[in-house]
Write a sequence for this structure.
C-alpha cells in the first residue's frame, strides 16, 4: 500500500490541541524535544480533552512521544 505523504502529514496526533503530524515534525526539526515544547512552538496548548475529542477516547501522550522519537531518529 502506498501512502499519500500529504494525507500522512495531515493526520491528527493530538486531538486536544488539534496538532497534526507535520506540526510535530516541524517543531522537532526546530529543536523541540518534549510535548510541552512542541505545543508551545505550535501555539496549541489545550490539554485534557482526550475523552471528548479523541475518537479512541484515549490520551495521545504515547502516540505523541512516538512521533517525536521517530522524527528525532530521522534527523
Amino acid at each position: 500500500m502506498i501512502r499519500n505523504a500529504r494525507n500522512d502529514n495531515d493526520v491528527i496526533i493530538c486531538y486536544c490541541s488539534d496538532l497534526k503530524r507535520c506540526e510535530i515534525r516541524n517543531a522537532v526539526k526546530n529543536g523541540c524535544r518534549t510535548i510541552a515544547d512542541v505545543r508551545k512552538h505550535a501555539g496549541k496548548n489545550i490539554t485534557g480533552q482526550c475523552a471528548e475529542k479523541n475518537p479512541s477516547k484515549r490520551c495521545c501522550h504515547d502516540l505523541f512521544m512516538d512521533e517525536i522519537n521517530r522524527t528525532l531518529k530521522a534527523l
